[in-house]
Design brief:
Length: 66
């Protein structure tokens, strides 16, 4: 299935969930926020939320600094 992450085309297996996307991006354990089609998906729902064809996903990675 094809969808978009931060404006770029991405492909994952059908029935992929947000956890699969996080793993494929190497962001496991990182402080991130995910929005799908302009709706924030809480971390507690990442394993259950199935990505659909042509979804628009935005992944924001928090970066600390001082």
């Amino acid at each position: 299935m094809q969808f978009y992450v931060n404006g770029e085309s991405k492909t994952l297996n059908d029935n992929a969930c947000l956890v699969d996307l996080i793993e494929s991006m190497g962001l496991v354990g990182k402080r991130i926020a995910i929005e799908v089609n302009q709706e924030i998906i809480p971390r507690s729902q990442h394993a259950d939320y199935r990505i659909q064809e042509n979804d628009q996903v935005e992944v924001v990675h928090a970066i600390g600094g001082g």
